[in-house]
Specification:
Thioredoxin-like_sf; alpha+beta; about 270 residues; transmembrane; Glutaredoxin
Length: about 270
């Protein structure tokens, strides 16, 4: 009886010990994230399938325009739908037009997803954005094609066996017409101004008015936050400091001249 209990309890004890260890082994905050790959070349020729079942490449969709590339899950029960909605809100609140000035691609990171999954996610998106969502290309692809793009972008994700889903972060990659990573816009909803500036910069002079190009001179992109911050105030502070230093120097020289004149008169 003792041997039987020992034989039963040993696997139980082992499972009790190893169970928590295996459960703690997966840390989505360590597995998922974005490594900075500034100006990385994206393989635009990689083959994917869109929501209609048509074979496409990123290059054929971009057609020489800047591209907003959103890595996501079409069957995501969590934030992916919110991410696309936030992007749609930002797009409709800035002047550039998807399909004309830039391309929007929602790319699945799960090779098990199908064009039907992509189509269903677009059906849901079009309920909220009936016209705008028609400009979004929803893609699925092979593990190799997905990995080629995400690795170039520095976009990390990992399968979580506990929930049966990929852990990933919400972000939008801004890609130049030549296929280079320009910026990341982090979070569920980029601001319209950040989106406009990112597209202006990624367009490399091909889109945006002279005023929009000039506006870039007054803004600084912070890769750690994925946002543009105005640097005009920093420039004004520097200018004010230089002006104050020059003024003090001029006053100092004026005082010295006056004293020298007084000495010369007294002498």
């Amino acid at each position: 009886m003792t041997g039987l209990l020992k034989g039963v309890l040993t696997p139980m004890v082992v499972s009790l010990i190893l169970g928590p260890i295996s459960a703690q082994a997966f840390d989505p905050f360590k597995q998922a994230g974005i490594d900075q790959h500034p100006d990385a070349k994206i393989p635009l020729s990689s083959s994917f399938v869109d929501e209609t079942g048509r074979d496409v490449s990123l290059d054929s969709l971009a057609r020489g325009r800047p591209m907003l590339l959103v890595p996501l899950l079409h069957r995501c029960p969590n934030i992916c739908g919110v991410t696309l909605s936030g992007l749609m809100d930002a797009i409709r609140s800035q002047p550039y037009q998807p399909g004309e000035d830039f391309t929007v691609v929602a790319m699945s990171i799960d090779p098990a997803e199908t064009p039907s999954d992509a189509q269903q996610s677009m059906v849901e998106l079009r309920k909220r954005y009936p016209n705008l969502a028609l400009k979004v290309h929803a893609l699925t692809g092979s593990r190799k094609a997905i990995a080629a793009v995400t690795q170039a972008l520095g976009y990390r994700y990992a399968w979580d066996p506990e929930i049966g889903q990929y852990a990933h972060v919400a972000a939008t990659a801004v890609v130049t017409p030549a296929g280079h990573l320009s910026h990341w816009l982090y979070g569920l909803a980029p601001t319209p101004d950040d989106l406009k500036l990112a597209l202006t910069e990624a367009g490399q002079g091909q889109i945006g008015s002279w005023a929009n190009q000039l506006l870039l001179l007054c803004y600084h992109y912070d890769p750690t936050t994925g946002q543009y911050s105005p640097i005009i105030w920093d420039a004004l502070r520097i200018f004010a400091g230089v002006t104050a230093a020059l003024l003090l120097g001029w006053l100092g020289l004026s005082v010295m001249r006056e004293r020298r004149k007084e000495v010369e008169r007294d002498g």
